[in-house]
Design brief:
It is globular, with a radius of gyration of 22 Å. It is α/β, with parallel strands linked by helices. The longest helix is centred in the middle third of the chain and has 18 residues. 36% of the residues are buried. A hairpin with a 4-residue loop joins strand 1 and strand 2.
Length: 352
Amino acid sequence: MLDARATPTPLVQVRDLKMHFPIYSGIFRRHTGDVKAVDGVSFDIMPGETLGLVGESGCGKSTVGRTLLRLYDPTAGSVTIDGTDIATLSPEALRLKRPTMQMVFQDPQASLNPRMTLAEIIGEPLREHTTGDAATQLERVYELMNAVGLNRRFARRFPHEFSGGQRQRIGIARALALNPKFIVCDEPIAALDVSIQAQVVNLLEDLQDNLGLTYLFISHDLSMVRHIADRVAVMYLGLIVELSPRDALYANPLHPYAKALLSAVPEADPAREATRRRIILKGDVPSPANPPKGCTFCTRCPQVFDRCRTERPALIEAEPGRKVACHLFTTPTAGSTGSVEVTEPNQQGVSK
């Protein structure tokens, strides 16, 4: 007999996802290589959970989000959403699956058709995927406008007549039109004023509580991710290097890159800000077209050793509920079994 308290099935299951963009060169446009934007990513998202995906620009965060929804056809791997492998669906089957999964894009101005009114933009998914009459669809549009805090009197206005925060609310309303279970939020606050960002994040949280939504929240704003996410995945050069519960990650990051990333977040307390250590990474991010042979972070890591340069570390469970891809957590201490060798960090690139 099954235990009623058994772990629920993940709504989203990603296994070894890869997204490589081909490079063509020469007069005959020969295929000479690939940009490995995403190079083997695996994670789960539970129903009702928010997974934060963070990392510096160019690490592959947005590509992961777009590949999850099949806006890009993945090079390899599987993406299972609500029990269906999205990566293998035919175009017709994918279209029928679209209502389950939606996306809120980074730039609200670029993602809205400037020639359509607010009512037409929000109602477009209803026209494409439902069979209700015009009056029923318009009533649904009004419901969605109320849900995201837009006045009904704005229904016949065009996108250029709204502020950035209002345009993002239009994008959120459009994403909610078909009652999705899973929404990818691709840096939804990056193009907004700081005063508006908190309003949009609070709106997303309220909608999640009321509608039971599941989010992949992509952002480079670590402070905002700390506010909204349940778990956080840290990406570097197309790979997840650490996946941890939010509080555990911010209190004690395990991967050297996660430590450096979080050390850049300013402290609100001036006394703590004056005494905290800032980790300054040396060098530049390698090209995703020619990543390092071993660990992708080995060219900038202050704790690098020989194994890092020849062998890529796997994403393993270093602590209960926490995964990290680092050889510091896969090298057993001499004479022990199953223990982890934790090397004291050197002071290369570390400053007060």
